[in-house]
Amino acid sequence: MTALQQNQVLSIQSTVVSGYVGNKCASFALQIHGFDVCPVNSVQLSNHTGYKCFKGQVLNAADIECLYDGLKQNNIHGQFSHLLTGYIGSESFLLKVGEIIQDIRDSNPGITYVCDPVMGDNGKLYVPEELMPVYRDVIVPKADIVTPNQFEAELLTGIKITTISEALQAMQCLHDMGPKTVVLSSTSLGSNGILVALASSVKNGNKECYKIEMPHKDAIFVGTGDLFASCLMVWMHKDNDLKTALEKTVSTVQTVITRTLDAAQEVAGKGNTPTPAQMELRLIQSKSDIENPKINFTAEKI
Fold first, then answer.
1. Is-catalytic flag, 226?
2. Which of 203, 206, 249, 291 has the fewest beta carbons closer than 10 A?
3. pTM of this prediction?
């Protein structure tokens, strides 16, 4: 077994040539915090799918198995301190990821696995529906931290979330699957244009829960979930405190999307709707905010 390297993450998710989603987004946020990022791409596209067209390739189970086999033969696979997974578009690829996660954990039981179970949003799936039971039965039970949105939490638990109480019930169901930390990255449980994120963690049999409110912005952002999961990984590692990690993560994402929307509207011109290209996350311009976030949103214990 190789020695576990601190702050070395294997990140398995999508990538794009132009723009910032998936590994293209997460890698930057992790690297400026001192993480060595080893990316494996589930798909590689010219740009994200919100544009009028996109082109690229979808990796299959054999592709990731080949890459992982290279790592394993060189005894690299056992040195990761963290695992991060995001968008995966095929059942066979996701099943292979489950095998890889287990193999890495067998080499290094102390590894931290953060799972963003990307399946859809606002009641709409954007992956094949057969991925849901794989996430529920194979992937989520292996995770230490899981970051679904409201719709994904409903899919995984079978619980319709219309109240904070139902959200907490769904989060407990996710805890029961295995993860010690559950964060609902966004829910529509607020009022008057307010979104709510919820976080719950179990340590030594004790449970702590928090909620944090943020404004809803009437615009389409792509890559925010990838930024959220990577920032949460950073702050849970550095601070080991759920409340602080949630506050820094939400504050970072809100700062980035505010800068993005302001810049996009300026380029588009008054009264015009920004294009997908104009709405790409202003990630590079937000380097200092990602590195040292100002806490603009505070979490309340529940």
1. yes
2. 206
3. 0.95
